[in-house]
Amino acid sequence: MPNYKTVFFTLGILQIILGIFMFIPIVAQFIYDQVDASFFGSSLVTIVFGTLFFLSNLDHDKKLNLQQAFLLTALSWLSIAIFGSLPFIFSNINFTFTNAFFESMSGITTTGSTIISNLEEMPKSILLWRALLQWLGGIGIIIMAITLMPIMNVGGMQLFKISNNDSSEKILPKSKEIAIRLIFIYTGLTLFCAISYNIFGMDIFDSITHSMTTIATGGFSNYNQSIGFFNSASIEISAMIFIILGSLPFIAYIKFIGGNKKILINDIQIRSFLKIILITIIILSIYISFNESISLNLRAILFNVISILTGTGYVNAQYDNWGSFALVLFLILMFIGGCAGSTTCGIKIFRVQILHTFIINSLKKIIYPKGVFILKYDRNPIDNKFVSSIISFIYMYLIIFFLLAVLLSLTGLDFLTSISGAATSISNVGPGLGSIIGPNSNFSSLPDISKWILSVGMILGRLELFAILVLFLPSFWRN
Question: pLDDT class for 478, splitting at 50, 70, 90?
Fold first, then answer.
């Protein structure tokens, strides 16, 4: 009989931490004279449930097997989304449970889709809570991607094991070691980002909230116009720099601090990530320059390419008016995403690289049947297990994308809204395309069933698909 005490013990700790973070918006309520009991009540409920989980599982064995690791991953994000929705429900802004859960799920998965149509009128505490959810989701996904995912062998993430001797029994102590370093790096980047925003014109509140959603590549803003509200080149340049910093593999930062000063230059993912940004900007600029109906704005092109590729979702222009080619290009960028082990989402750069290498090798084998071609990644040979894992992931990614799009269309949404909604949810980008969920619109007008479908897409995309899907296989639990 499997013992899940470690799973529920850890869930209890996470809920207590979430409840403690709910006290931060209470400070904002006092500062801006918007005091109500929503966050205090939410914090109390969350901490009580967390304490019950914690105390009832004190005798856990401090180990996780493979099944427990998958279960902990799924339940962590689901429980945080549920309890994270309480402040929205208890507040005086009249959120339904569907809207509250959607906003919370969008926050913790760093998606950035919102159902709030009047952000400027929202209480400061609610705006701060949205930013905190994304900030917590960002550090959470980094720790999970570096510690749990490689051991769980999800979608080729085993390629990024810290040590080849890692085993499931070492998950917890390894996580504690690495998590402390990651939290310091993550917090430091957030602080520097907030300072830069404040220097370039944001007030203290905006600089704090936007820095949290920038480093988390989440994209929640305090304004309906997103970053475009400030109409500041300095703020946008600062945002682009810190979005890119949040999109790099955080294990590279640890190695850099550890003495490998060339890691940020030599890392194959980082180089490809920057190349994709540069090539996309050049292609889009050439396309727009030859299209007389669209004015060329290099600042807008640069900002939105970086924002969409990284899944941040900040906008400073109505890019859905740039023509059909630009929309297709942005859909492709949504799928690609950033680097593994960062706050970004999508398929990830390394999977695209390995798939590309696999295809090239396959073509060579057709041309030279007797040739021997070894598949390598970053000059290291990789076996068929990695390749099959990555191909399976990309295949399932596309299948689930099309399934989400079909389900959304069945709820009455038009073709563009269904396609872009499915893409933005599974890729955790934020805004979609078109007049309903486009860059300066929101998801409030969608039917409730559509919001639940999108919420499922968000958690599937955030947890690399298989971390959720495998839980529904009876054979997995029997093994």
Answer: confident
Helix 384-410 × helix 349-367 angle, to 10°: 120
Residues in the chain: 479
Closest CA to 10 of 82, 105, 75: 75
Helix axes of 448-462 and 415-426: crossing angle, nearest 10 degrees:
40
Sign of the dihedral defined by the CA atoms of residues 149, 155, 159, 165, in that order:
positive
Q: Please name the residues in contact with 228: beta carbons below 8 A apart, sequence gap of 6 or more.
A: 315, 316, 317, 440
Express the helix, strand and coil content of the chain in percent, nearest 5 each.
70, 0, 30
Specify whether the CB–CB gap between 437 and 431 falls below 8 A.
yes
End-to-end CA, the chain: 12
pTM of the model: 0.91
CA distance 147 to 161: 8
What are the structure tokens assigned to 473, written together? 């296989």
Backbone angles phi, psi at 96, to 5 degrees: -75, 165
Q: What is the C-alpha to C-alpha distance for residues 183 and 179, in angstroms, rounded to an integer?
A: 6
- H helix runs in 319-383, sequence order: 324-336, 349-367
The more confidently predicted of residues 205 and 8 is 205
